[in-house]
Write a structure and sequence with these properties.
This protein is mostly helical. It has a single domain (10-198, 217-413), classed as Growth Hormone, Chain: A (Up-down Bundle). The chain has 17 helices and no strands. It has helices at 7-27, 33-41, 45-70, 77-101, 106-138, 141-171, 178-199, 215-228, 230-247, 249-260, 265-289, 294-315, 320-348, 354-363, 367-382, 384-403, 407-413. Mean pLDDT is 80; it is low at 408-414.
Length: 414
């Protein structure tokens, strides 16, 4: 029992979860596998983008509600586990409908996906707030950044294994839709195993105020919170603008399929390249995190996200093999976002109102809800190149505004 209460076990629990979560996410990777699956069911980029609006945006919509509900709960592990189990059931449901209906009734499969993707997203928002609060109250500032870096390393290794599995599944003689159903079932099992890391994890009690304020009153108070806390407000603006790089992540795969007319064998190849980029970047981020703060990592990550679309335009004139470089760089950007953004946010928000602030942050990330749809419309009318250039411009603005947040503000609020 002493080991279970030790800091080593805390690291073990979060790394265990991160490892199997990364393996699970590889089975429905949003940049390779999921785009390929959806394009087998429909050619509509609007429907395709709608899934991403739900995937990225639904947790944001409900985060204020979740934050308000959880703020007076001293223990949140049971809510984290509930969210994980609901997400795993979404994988199981998608596997069922993909296997039995995707060939003969793709419309029904699309409709079912809207339900399961919504369930996946809502439960992700619920689990995410609980997860972040547990990390924040369990580990101090320095240990948090170290944990995020370690999680990325082991998660990257798991994602690489997942990429190999996906490459094997889609290169074997397993026909459609069995190949996709198998990957989704592996995702279902991976999440169940991932949850085991938290079952024995001791959770410290949260600092609660037992505030009886109604949800409506809390929502009305959000503008005053933003006016009072300039650093938090600036973070919200920067994160929204940086969402433009996330907007086009799934469209890189669509761009490659339409430009090079590649088959599904490239799904696994690109996913492996992406995970290799993630693993390699973890070494780089690990070195940088020992010398730089989370804000500096955020800045580098946003710059990478702004330059990658321009590189995609150029590599689109070469070959699908060279285009794999885009996914290698995506590994850097995705890893950097996980290491930089959330630790930085935890540095600048007050401890006693942590869950409420996390909920506000989530719900005010409104651009994540509409950007995939906006991206699809821009691509339909103006093409990929115009969309890619627009993303680069917006990321440049995000870097500029991030620089306006002074280090003194950060110190004052820590």
């Amino acid at each position: 029992m002493k080991f279970i209460k030790s800091p080593k076990f805390v690291y073990f629990a979060f790394i265990w979860h991160g490892f199997f979560l990364a393996l699970t996410v590889s089975m429905l990777d949003l940049n390779t596998v999921f785009p390929a699956l959806v394009t087998t069911l429909t050619s509509s980029k609007v429907i395709f983008a709608a899934f991403y609006s739900i995937m990225l945006g639904v947790p944001m919509i409900f985060n204020v509600v979740f934050g308000h509900y959880l703020r007076n709960k001293p223990y949140k592990k049971k809510y984290l586990l509930l969210g994980i189990y609901l997400r795993s059931s979404a994988f199981l449901g998608m596997a069922y409908f993909t296997y039995y209906f995707s060939t003969n009734n793709p419309t029904l499969t699309i409709i079912s996906f809207f339900f399961f993707v919504s369930l996946f997203s809502i439960s992700a928002g619920f689990a995410g707030l609980s997860y972040t609060d547990i990390i924040a109250k369990t580990l101090n500032r320095e240990k948090r950044l170290k944990l995020y870096t370690l999680k990325q390393f082991f998660g990257g290794s798991a994602a690489f294994i997942g990429g190999l599995l996906i490459a094997q599944i889609f290169s074997m003689s397993i026909s459609y839709p069995t190949n996709y159903a198998i990957s989704l079932l592996i995702g279902f099992g991976g999440l169940i195993i991932a949850s085991l890391g938290f079952i024995l994890l001791p959770e410290p009690s949260s600092i609660t105020t037992q505030n009886k304020e109604s949800l409506l009153s809390f929502i009305k108070r959000i503008p005053s919170i933003l006016r009072k806390d300039e650093s938090f407000k600036s973070f919200i603006i920067v994160e929204n603008l940086s969402g433009f790089s996330i907007m086009i992540l799934p469209f890189y795969m669509v761009f490659a399929k339409e430009t090079f007319n590649i088959d599904d064998s490239f799904i696994g190849k690109y996913l492996i390249v992406l995970t290799v980029g993630t693993i390699f970047s973890n070494v780089v981020w690990g070195v940088l995190s020992s010398k730089l703060n989370a804000k500096a990592i955020m800045r580098i990550c946003i710059i990478i996200g702004g330059l990658n679309p321009l590189l995609a335009i150029y590599l689109g004139t070469t070959s699908p093999e060279y285009f794999a470089i885009i996914f290698f760089i995506l590994g850097f950007m995705i890893s950097g976002r996980r290491i930089g953004f959330e630790p930085y946010l935890l540095d600048i928000i007050p401890k006693t109102e942590r869950v409420e602030y996390l909920g506000i942050r989530g719900s005010l990330n409104i651009l994540k809800i509409i950007l995939p749809l906006v991206g699809a419309v821009i691509i339909n009318y103006f093409g990929f190149n115009v969309t890619f250039v627009l993303v680069t411009i917006m990321m440049g603005i995000a870097v500029y505004l991030l620089g306006k947040i002074s280090d003194k503000q950060m110190v004052d609020l820590c």
